[in-house]
Amino acid sequence: MSMATITISGTPGSGKSTVAHLLHERLNLPYVYSGLIFREAAQNHGMSLEEFSRHCETQSDIDRELDDRQIELLRQGNLILEGRLAGWLAHRHHIPAFKIMLDAESTLRAQRIVNREQGDVEERKREMLQREQSERTRYETYYGIDLLDTSIYDLVIDTSNKAPEVIVDMILQRLKETHYL
Per the structure, how many domains does the chain have? Predict the structure, then answer.
């Protein structure tokens, strides 16, 4: 296989990690989860993701450090990079990549988060929506990026009523159709 770089972006609870893991298994490409770096930083600061997201609204150096690490990985290529800005970073820095965006209905996403992390669905939904607003604010302020703009993606999938395996099959089909792989 030639050098392949795939980005998977999407909203919290949309299935990014599950899909990325399955693609990793099917394509045998290295997989990097940029959210883990952010989660570790939140933990190191003794904050929840929601608190840390708000903290980052006034501390652009944290986002920029994470972004620089992602850009470096994208330039090396031959990987699957999962992250909210992964597709935008590839686009903005003219790095060839197949960019995927996943989304789902907000209550379903909150339920998925509860299934993974426990908690109350309504509380998780509130936290999730606040986090999304915080991210939209930060990325618009720091980079002029509108996270609601999906025009830069090669494939946008609503994961609400699709099994992860079906989503991966859709991605692989599009990769073949576009001769990306």
Answer: 1
Give the SS3 label for residue 34.
Answer: helix
**Structural domain contains residue 181:** no
CB-CB neighbours of 43 under 10 Å: 12
CATH classification at residue 47: 3.40.50.300
How does 27-40 read in b/e, with b if 16+ C-beta sit within 10 Å?
Answer: bebebbbbeebbee
- Report the alpha-carbon distance of residue 21 to residue 7 in Å, rounded: 12
- Tokens 């299934």 — which residue? 115
pLDDT of 1 > 70? The answer is no
The answer to whether the beta carbons of residues 77 and 142 sit under 8 Å apart is no
Band of residue 91 on the pLDDT scale cut at 50, 70, 90: very high
Cα–Cα distances in angstroms (integers) from residue 3 to residues 11, 27, 64, 152, in the given order: 27, 12, 26, 21
pLDDT in tens, 98-148: 999 999 999 999 999 999 889 999 999 999 998 899 889 888 988 899 999
